[in-house]
Amino acid sequence: MIFMSQILSIEELNNWYAENEIDFSWLNKPSRHQFRWREDSGRWSTNTKRISKYPQLLKAFGGEPPTDLYYGTAEWLEPIGLPRIRETNKPAPILLDHLVVFDIDQTPFCHRRLEAARKTTSSLVDWLEENENLDLQYISYSGSKGFHIVLKDLDREKFAIEEPRLREQKVRDERKQLLQRVLAAGFAVDETVTADTRRIIRLPASLHGKTGWICTIIDKETLAKPLRTWIKDIPRHEKAVKMPYWPPKVKAKKKSSQKEKATVVDHGSWVVMEASSHVAGTKDRSALLAWVPRHWGNKRKQRLYDELDEIGWSPCHHWKAGDRELLLVPLAFQKQQMMRRLKELGLGLAYSQFERLGHSWTGVSPRKWEDGFSDEDFEYLGVLPSEKQRCKEPWSNPHLELIQRLGGLVEMDDPMSEDFIGSESCSIRISNFK
């Protein structure tokens, strides 16, 4: 697997953000939104004071410029020190508004896949205008593999609900219903974004740290045109990576008819990178790292998701590779607790490894064949929706780092108050198979 790394130095990032002011005028009240950013070290930061103008945000960086910059999709009466949904022992924040956001991605980063994402985005914008009571605020190219559609909800009744928690829950419920209508209409969107009132999304005019392209607002008319006619006009850093036209080649499967005898082709050996569930630096703690059984249907998968939510095993990050799905909960569980839960959840392969080894090894990269071909790359899907309170187990340092290596986002409200254990890096091995 190739991990895209930051292409710019801290000095280059500092210079870019100092010389390129970001316009907030499209936001109704910037001071009512959260701003979050990822630093070069991978650490996440959140504004600790209200931000209404760009110079205030620039000052908040404190000399540690963002590799990636985001804003919260919700508008709050008090956005600073926002408690989590599950923290019912704290006063509930007052939700004033929530932008409706759709995220459309097509991996990998290349012209052909981005053109497919453009067509989906353009069609979805038209469908939303015809079928939903929403007002388009803007469309943006993310700076990498896709597009964002941001809309305002014209139905204001739910935002008048007096009880803050009921108000936020009503918004979340309506967003879930909207998401289901969009999915039923055949649009492939990120299912983790739309219904989440605590979601962050890339700030327009900010720099994408892995590509060097700028997250850019585009109008509906431009979106309707072929990508080749306008992609050259998208601003980017002088060190930005070049967008390839074609995705990397993958091995085509040989088909055989019933009348023909199937030909067996020996491709030789293949290698895969595997990560251990063991929390390095501890005696017997492990994170949940496992593939969902390939033969499970959607109903069985949903039952697994519900069971994970019920026992508080969250956040659960997940990736897709072909028709398979990888799960990772970056918490440090005792071995016996992990084994009991793996058995209950039906994750038999991981359970059998725990019986033999005391932990499990799980492939976290595509197979690389001896003849040079690779299986499909991973696509990060985000975090599974969760309504229950997270269990009290500490965070696993090495698996938080693994999530970021696999292209995921690690978000925490207050990292300084959290409990972390284990070393900084996950145990990795490269395995050869025949």
Q: What value does the average pLDDT take?
A: 87
Radius of gyration: 22 Å
Share of residues in helices:
10-25%
- CATH class of the largest domain reads Alpha Beta
Please tally the β strands and state the result: 20
Query: Can you name the CATH architecture of the largest domain?
Result: Alpha-Beta Complex
Low-confidence stretches: 1-5, 250-268
Oligomer kind:
single chain
| SSE class | alpha+beta
Order of helices and strands: HEEHEEEEHEEHEEHEEHEEHHEEEEHEE
| CATH homologous superfamily annotation of the largest domain | DNA primase, PRIM domain
Total domains, how many? 2
At CATH level 3, the topology of the largest domain is DNA primase, PRIM domain
Coarse shape? globular
Terminal-residue CA separation: 19 Å
DSSP summary: helix tally? 9
